[in-house]
Amino acid sequence: MATIVDFRAEKPNWCPGCGDFTVLAALQKAAVNIGLEPEEMVTVSGIGCSGKLSQYMGSFGFHSLHGRSLPVATAVKLANRDLTVVAAGGDGDGYGIGMGHFIHAMRRNIDITYLVMDNHIYGLTTGQTSPTSDKGSKTKTAPEGAVEEPVHPLQMAIMAGCGFVAQGYSGNLKQLTELIEKGIQHRGFSLINIYSPCVTFNKVNTYDYYKANLVNVDDDASYDKTDRFAAIRKIEEAEENVTGILYHDPSKQAYDEVLRGYPEQAIAKNDLKFTREQWEKLAVQFK
Amino acid sequence: MIKDLGWKVGGAQGEGIDSTQDIFALSLFRLGYYVSTYRHFMSLIKGGHTNGKVRITSEITGHHGDDLHILLAFDQETINHNFHELIDGGVLIYDTAIKDATVPENDKVNICPVPLTEIAKEAGSPIMKNMVSMGVTAAIIGLTPDDFRSVVVDKFGGKGDEIVDSNIAAIQKGFDFAKENFSATIELPARPELKSERLYISGNDAVSLGAIAGGCRLLAQYPITPATEVMYQIIKQFPQVGGTVVQAEDEIAAVMMSIGANYTGVRSMTATSGPGLSLMMEALGLAGISETPLVIIDVQRSGPSTGLPTKTEQSDLYTMMYGSHGEIPRIVLTPRNVEECFFFTMEAFNLAEKYQCPVIVATDLYMGMNKQTVASIDFDKFKINRGKLISDEQLAELEKGAFKRFDVTPEDGVSFRSIPGQKNGRFVAMGNEHDEVGVEMEEPELRVKQMDKRAKKLVNFNDVAGATYVGAENAELLLVDFGSMTGPQREVYEELAAEGVSVGHLSIARLLPFPTEEIKGYINNAKKVLVTEMNSTGQLKNQLKQFINGDHNKFESCLKYSGDPFLVNEIYAKAKALADSLKKEVTL
């Protein structure tokens, strides 16, 4: 059995106090709790502070391009369905340049878990407006306050047919670990949006802010996480200041389960032998 | 020139022109002839003019031929656009259902008006006018209705004997009508000896089959003319070999998926055309620096931007060779005929894994979408080589975390690669510069070491021959081309050689690593070098100038970028003029 130490790689160089430390710790704990071995797991990330997660996580990793973690993660899972695949990125990475892939990965229902470290700001490029920056928030690129509506990832995911939609918070390692475990165990695409404060560039969406405002639906026994419209109502009423599993539908079949001709055995484990007999079968249509 | 027969059918797009062309070409192929086809079509679904040409020869060619002997017109536009191509003694067959048909005055062409639609109606359905026209054609070129039977059975057998019989009857009726009403005949070339293992196949289909035989098991692609057929073919065949196809949301996703699959140990590719290739440039660099194998098929079309989506060109050469920021090693192969589309694609997977870098296979619409006879495909000579994959045993011997995925010590610049799932093989593939273990870093010395390591990979590359030469030793006139232009240019070469010109033909099979050593002798010995390519700036010619020292004034270009493929005569005229100018120099 692997331990936390087995899932540790390089020492992170995030700013002291960064919310991403908790995300990494939660992912490591979740992997251990599920009983994964480091070589059975692949963490694929995009670019930005969040993108560095793949280097610090002791699993196999792919630190890809800005906004492009999901197509890579999709292919890793399709190439070897025996692997546990986690994609990770930030709000700029995933909901800005990567928005197209985000919607399509959910539509396909690929069996991967997507962690978005949402700090409402571009961190590594030093503090510009991000797709989730609150309307009116002042940044280097919106000194008078952002005029655009922020994107609403939770509502979008539910409407796009995502079967597991949750939100976590870097100030609550225990809950975040549970969410990641359940997300990984969900067969299909799971989105976990994580409020992960940027202590350097975002002075509004801070730990104190979240402590004061977040409501945890996991504590609410009356909350029905199978009702997608109730989920959207709840998220909007709370102005997205919620944590927990907001929507879960385990009945949807994952992409690789419904594909015609998709092999039982992981494609990566099949040998590449191609026989004369197979060739004759292919060639006959050209004779 | 090769003795041939050129036959063309034209009509409105959506009228079954493609299938008419296909039935004719496949029938002649099965009789043992070599066929070479060309589809002229527009970027719309219905309406507009479309036509399909079939060239029939008794030897193999890579060109659809200049001459037109028989034109089959389903509408007036076909006559307007194509009549002028008919040679003296040629035949125009047109449907009398064309109202007030007007035919240009020309007493050297045989005009055969046939009530194609009417006869088809009598035979059961007006849509069988194409079958009636097969019968008319058969009567003119000395075939029998029975010569079309096997194709009719294959195409319509699934719909029942009745449908087959009525189609055969339609062919017979057309045949009888022509025999009664027309005396024009056109002679077919000599029928070659029928050899087994020949295929009637397009470049796109050959690429697809080559990919499957080469071990590709995940295709991620976004639809784009003229590369879409690759996806169709692979979707059809993958269930038999256990692979999967993803229709990606865009070309960026397609190439990233292909990279992701290769990283996971599954041979994967994407196929696209110019606009899609442009979108893939950032990912190409990622594959290069992360040393992840990648195969991209670029079926070139006319650019720039969306350009002419249904027309051919060879103008992505700079993009393939130099596209993407920064510097990475890469391999660019340029199949010169349909057979090479198969073998080069197969080999591309070996090369991508052997050198852990991107491999681009460059075809074009002309070769990709048109079918022709391929002499033989013997894939037995092909072996799968997965390159430096580290074994589980090797990994077990290492100390934990000591695996150097990007080890700089190997002389050939290629380090061992592990695959997710391998214990103790953990590493991070990344677009950032990294050290030998794979940790992101910015130290100048280590950066230089990693750059140099990657650059070493292709220094001694000799896996695929860079070029083929035929012709006189020390030929004065050298004809150079790449890709699909090798077919027509070979005919020009043969014509000139038969005339006694001191000529050679050099066809480039690989753009990167550029085959400088292999070709510089031929270039330096020649007095004039004519480079034929389908673009407006002479991209290949400029590469020759860049890579080969010597007299750059000897280079001449033969260029076409109208969207239509070259005629052999257009190249011949240019080459002949150069040959004549050389002769004059000698006499002066």
From TrEMBL, chain A:
GO molecular function: iron-sulfur cluster binding; metal ion binding; oxidoreductase activity, acting on the aldehyde or oxo group of donors, iron-sulfur protein as acceptor; thiamine pyrophosphate binding
Ranges where the Thiamine pyrophosphate enzyme TPP-binding domain occurs: 47-194
Region (Disordered): 127-147
GO biological process: cellular respiration
UniProt keywords, alphabetically: Iron, Iron-sulfur, Magnesium, Metal-binding, Oxidoreductase, Thiamine pyrophosphate
InterPro entries: 2-oxoacid:Fd_oxidoreductase, OFOB, PFO_beta_C, THDP-binding, TPP_enzyme_TPP-bd
SUPFAM superfamilies associated with the record: Thiamin diphosphate-binding fold (THDP-binding) (SSF52518)
Pfam families for this protein: PFO_beta_C (PF12367), TPP_enzyme_C (PF02775)
Cited NCBIfam families: PorB_KorB
Name of the protein this chain belongs to: 2-oxoacid ferredoxin oxidoreductase
Organism, as annotated: Tumebacillus algifaecis
From TrEMBL, chain B:
Pfam families: PFOR_II (PF17147), POR (PF01558), POR_N (PF01855)
One Gene Ontology molecular-function label: oxidoreductase activity, acting on the aldehyde or oxo group of donors
Domain Pyruvate:ferredoxin oxidoreductase core positions: 475-551
InterPro entries: 2-oxoacid/accept_OxRdtase_asu (IPR022367), PFOR_II (IPR033412), Pyruvate:ferred/Flavod_OxRd (IPR050722), Pyrv/ketoisovalerate_OxRed_cat (IPR019752), Pyrv_Fd/Flavodoxin_OxRdtase_N (IPR002880), Pyrv_flavodox_OxRed_cen (IPR002869), THDP-binding (IPR029061), Transketo_C/PFOR_II (IPR009014)
Domain Pyruvate flavodoxin/ferredoxin oxidoreductase pyrimidine binding: 210-452
Record-level GO BP terms: response to oxidative stress
Keyword Oxidoreductase (UniProt): yes
Domain Pyruvate/ketoisovalerate oxidoreductase catalytic per the UniProt entry, residue ranges: 14-176
Keywords, sorted A to Z: Oxidoreductase
NCBIfam families: OAFO_sf
Protein name in the entry: 2-oxoglutarate ferredoxin oxidoreductase subunit alpha
Species this protein is from: Tumebacillus algifaecis
Taxonomic lineage from the root: Bacteria, Bacillati, Bacillota, Bacilli, Bacillales
